[in-house]
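The freezer alarm interrupted the setup, so I double-checked each line after restarting. Inputs confirmed:
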Amino acid sequence: MKKFLALTLTLLMVLTFCVGCGGGGGSGSGGDTIKIGVFEPASGDNGAGGKQETLGIQYANKMQPTVTIGDKEYNVELVIIDNESDNSKAVTAAQNLVSQNVSIVLGSYGSGVSIAAADVFAEANIPAIGVTCTNPQVTADCEQYFRICFLDPFQGTVLANYAYENGMRKAYCLSKLGDDYSVGLVNYFVEAFKALGGEVVEEQFPDKNSDFTSYVANAKKAGCDVFFSPVSTEAAALIIDQAEAQALGMPLLAGDTWDSNVITGAAKGKDVEIVVTTFYQEGGNPDFDEGIKAWFEEDSSAMTNNGGNTDLAAVTAMGYDAYFVALEAMKAAGSTDPADILAALPSLQVSGLVCGDVSFNKTGDANKTEAFVKKCNTETGEWEFLTKQSAQ
Amino acid sequence: MGFLHTWLPYILAGIAVGGQYALIAIGYTMVYGILRLINFAHGDVFMWSGLIMVYMITVLPLWLSIILVIIFAIVLGTTIEKVAYRPLRSAPRMSIMISAIGVSYLLQNFALYITGGLTKTYPSINWLQKTVTIGSATTKMVTLITPVLTIILVVLLVMLIKYTKIGMAMRAVSRDFETSSLMGIDINRVITVTFVIGCALAAIGSVLYFSNYTGINPMSGAMPGLKAFVAAVFGGIGSVPGAVVGAFVIGVCENLIKGAGWTTFSDAFTFVLLIIILMVKPTGIFGEKNIDKV
Amino acid sequence: MEVRLNNKTKAALSAIAVALFLIFVFLGDKFIPAGSTWKMLITVIEKGSIYALVAASMNLLNGFTGLFSLGQAGFMLIGAYSYAIFTIPAGSHEKVYQYFDGGIIKWSLVEILEGKIGILGHYIGMFIPMLGAGLFVAVIAYLIGIPVLRLKSDYLAIATLGFAEIIRAFFQWNTLGPVTNGSNVLRKYTTYGNAVFPVLIGGISIALILLLINSTYGRAFKAIRDDEIAAEAMGINLFKHKEISFVISSFFAGISGALLAMFQTTINATPFNTVMTYEILLIVVIGGIGSITGSVIGAFLFTAASEWWLRGLDSGRWLGISSSLMRPGFRKVVFAVLIMLIVLFYAQGIMGSKEFSWDRFLTWWKRLPSNLKAWPERHRAKSEARKEARAVKAAAKAKAKEAKADNEARKASGKALFTPLPMSDHVIVFEKEGK
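Predicted 3D structure, all chains:
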């Protein structure tokens, strides 16, 4: 039995090894296919968001499966890889994408993994387009990284402005220990909010924590006007639950991560007030909304990945846009070579996208000046558009 | 009065979570008492009970789901014991512990696969999640029910251990494994019963815990599991009342620490407490002294 | 047929093998294009050698000294941070410590030394923080060891696990932000240029661990592992030796943490959690507890399987098989099942407690053809033996059942004098001995 087991194991390993290499060698020759790497989390803290973002990319690929570069038509193949929302796994995942000869990379949801992978893409000189990673460090010293979303300093200021304009003077800020996204956004929010004359109480919760009772109680005890917690949707659902259980009595404010059907699902029928800033509001492009919802209806696995219903998340729309930005970049470069695409990106201007036109500034960030502010309607479980807010 | 007014929400939350830890901790302490094994997979059995509830409730009525969840936890726990621990009973202690870690790894990864890495929302059980106000604190009904239910279950369990035949067998086996087997006690049966009790309590704990903190992901069991284990050590491993006292202490302290603004260290505190206990009184509050012989 | 080489030849063979491997890695990293699948091989070798080092260090503790410690990830974390903090270039501090005004330490050892003595200084500047990281971890381990090492097996495991968690919380603490950057990633620090670096450092460290194991200290460790009380009676100072093993193991864990930091190019504290420790432990188990060679093989297999070979299981196509079962997470399930199979049916792992030796390898190699030829015959003999054993067991079982039934019958008729022993292994053992 033992020998047999050992033998099978060894055989298995050797076989995989051969096939892994053989497969890679075969498709590496290119042909008429161009590969786009999708670097997104499908598990871990940001699994839900990552999947929704990937859905946008997949839908775009379904709508536009080919691209004409020069005079030649290429099939676009998506190489999807799970970075597990984990900075240490992200490096090898990125390495894996590079080794599969992708021409451009899209992603990721969550800034930490993008920062971790940036050096891998830089070394291989493959361009990457961040979809919704909002931490400034992603593009700051990486010439290969671009992004189509706004940044945290901007978003933090927008949120602070919104809070202050609506008469909130004392904010309770909760971020997750070890999560650069929430810590970063809270930091910018605090900076802006203090500059406006507001007061803040800052706290952090540890990894794997699911007991938010005391944090909600702390916010009440401190007598705050707003509960700002731009954390992952996993934690958000628990916070909303506790907020209702303890009758928090102040609005919950958050950034782009909360624009998800996980939040609306958790808030539905509860006595809470939730306000978020985001990239897209449903109804901004009815064709896209209907098309993707129809796709969710017919493809059950897509529906599951979206969280079991057809509610549209802003990150999905952003993923959709990112795909077309990538195609435009290839067309502009007139080549499938990563280096050429990289050269074409800085001067690229794309219009006709779902979430607004995209052009890049010097550091590779999109020039965006406005964010959507949405409020959750807890009776219907849907987002309602409040206003467009800018940083000024 | 002012003190109580400020801290009541934290104390209530602490007692509730302490009760839930207690229900998990009993599984740890009983298994350790008999097998001298830290059942690392226990926290994951707890997580899986929660997960199964999520799937079960979509097709079955609530009362049936709860019963089936308890049965599921028992089956899972005893199967783990049969498959992963029993064959290694005569192996060195390290291998059986590694096996426990392996099972934990498997259960977590399997949950990851089933859920697709997404957090599942626990079904709402209305009467448990109803909001109630006591003095300065507003909280869920489950917060009040948990300690009461925990204490009732623990009293029942202590009586079972004290006054029934199987309870006597358990005490004998935990005192001396080999001698009791020579005395005609069916060791395997005792161990199975231990796992049955531990897992059933963990399943009840999961209903209470996840009704309070409604998100379940593959790692949801890890932290409560570790904390429950620390509670078991704190109370003196092998002692059921000790584990319960330990769990309440940890639950309350943890919440008070969060309330005092030391949120960064709320988890670390549990381990600090563990280390202090191990240094000062390794046998815990209620534990008995144990001497190794050659 | 047995091959016996003299020590000189062995040393020469080893030197040649190591040199060839290093050259292969060096050239591979330099010349394999980034878009090639084979590049993954180099990545796996890099990460594999880092994990090999930490697995070997854990094995020194768990396999050779019998101390079941689960603190390895915490020590790696300290090592990684200690290295990174002192090698971030001065110009990057503002960006890296963006929320902490550039942090407290505003210089990089690498830069300072490079400015003074050129390229050599660059490497010395990398080497000193790396060694420093190891030493710092060793000091921390020494302090932790004083209380912890007095604990017995499982208590020790849980206490070290606890310390690792405390360390993690400490490094993420906002108040320490100016040094550790709190929850945010550290990046831009100096990393190695070629994959040969981690292989070389890992190799040297593992060689040192091997030397230690074969020294008098190593023999004392093994004595403690086999029987503490007997070892103490033999005059081995238990606490001193445990402390030595713990400190040295942590030193190398720290070094591997520093290497991991370089490999990842960015670090934060979150991934250094219990799962990471468990993975290292499983590597040790796969390789064989008590075999450094095993740990090294285990590390490479583990890394290759989880990062490369089994990746296809997540994306729906693997080995040309497509299945709807294969969606994200499947890889990890398969992996965990494989590990459980190893733990249950192949408990000694790949190497058991044996180490690689040229003699054994060459003997095995020479005998391979004849062994392969004889394999079907041996297999048949073995399966027959197994069948026979099964029959014996079944007969014993039947007999016991009969006895029980007989007894029941007696009991029913009021003649029972005693209750039978439960149907347990003992009955079968007696039967076997009788034969």
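Quick read of the result. Chain C has three domains: 1-27, 32-356, 360-434.
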